[in-house]
Amino acid sequence: MSPSDDPDARELLPLSPHALTPSLDALGHLLPQAGEHLSGERPKRSGADYRALWRTAIRQQILLLRMEKENQRLEASRDELHIRKMKLDYEEVGQDSKDAQGLWERKLSAPGRTTVLQDKEELYRALCQGVPKGRRGEVWLLFSHQHRLRHRLPNRQQAPDTHYQDLLKQLTAQQHAILVDLGRTFPTHQYFSAQLGAGQLSLYNLLKAYSLLDTEVGYCQGISFVAGVLLLHMSEEQAFDMLKFLMYDLGIRRQYKPDMVSLQIQMYQLSRLLHDYHRDLYNHFEENEIGPSLYAAPWFLTLFASQFPLGFVSRIFDFIFLQGTEVIFKVALCLLSCHEGELVECDGFESIVDYLKTTLPALTQAQMEQTIAKVTDMDISKQLHTYEVEYHVLQDEMVETAPLPDDSERLDKLEKTNAQLKKQNMDLLEKLQAARQKIQTLETSVESFLSRESKMKHVIRSLEQEKAGYQKTIERMRSCVPADALTDVEMTQIKTGPNGKAKTAAKKP
Fold first, then answer.
1. What end-to-end distance do the CA atoms of the chain give, in Å?
2. Prediction pTM value
3. Alpha helices in 339-406, H assignment, sequence order
4. Residue 141, CA distances (Å) to 24, 182, 242 in order
């Protein structure tokens, strides 16, 4: 369509001082001609001429407002793309091929993907080829749907059915611990580094909601890293659903329980794997009194997210969503085996611990790809089950063989212990009550400040947009009226009298 065919375009063209075509000049018959300016003659214009001029300016302003709204939509879209790019700012482990991308496109767009079972071996082969990080969140959602179709949890083991938005309206007793850990979670990642920025606020919402949903676990250090990885790949509500999937469906929440029994079992299983598969490294650790809990507990509690590169961690999450917690053991064992030679050469407790906490996590791209390749070829499910049974048998034997003191001595000890516990309980109750009151006061203050800040930002944005609109309107209107005609137009000016009432005065030429 040419500009002359569009009435809106015709209305905008007179704003250009270089308009040459009379048919395109909507105000040509209203504005004075060049010859008239030179001769000094001033054409007489009627009220209808000025009304037509103002109608034209108003129509142009309407068009400008529409254009501004479209620009705002475009800017919001650009912001969303910028945030998405910021979230996925990590180096991928293994480059997924075009065939793999096409395969995931077909699987993610297939009808009934959330209700129809797919071949698990086929999904695993596709996973080994790679996952586009831009579609990684969707792949995790697909895996969770497939797992739930195969394994239905008993009602008593399922997560409480409480909506995410309802949980956000409540207060949590874990708020202080959550706020303290916000700045410690991915402190170098751009999305989470800004204090109380979009990343930290989303992370706070997610952790708060889960602490209210799962009162037995509440909030535990380590969960924030798991939640952070999920938020980098999906929205808050999707991340909340995936956090529930990891915790309840895959059973990871057991390692966060206050008794930590599940974590102790995992440490025993890892120690037995080292004993059976890497005896020299196991003996070296034993000689230097280095147990798995010293270095591997953060790996299990954060799913490797607290120490290792995000691209590597995301790849581990891929396999966890499809294969479960067994993947954590396989990755831990592969990492230790890849560095076995260097670890055995470390002499002394401090040098070994330093290597495990600083040198080992600083993996090169080749080492990360090598580790993932080893994980895909490993199967240790039978050994893990055997070691778990073995742990429980050993615990039962220790209880049965423990020496029993005589009754009087045991009674005295129990009474003393009971008295101490009562005193500690009273002290803790007093501290807890004071802490709860302080937390409620702080939460109220924080929510008030956040609400006021949000309202002020909204008002500022509205005023800035309104100001810009008025400025553009003034400029457009001035450009439509000739300079020598401005003195002929009676402009009304509002002045304030001494009694505080407004009075109208005509501006004299």
1. 46
2. 0.66
3. 340-345, 349-354, 365-376, 381-401
4. 56, 25, 7
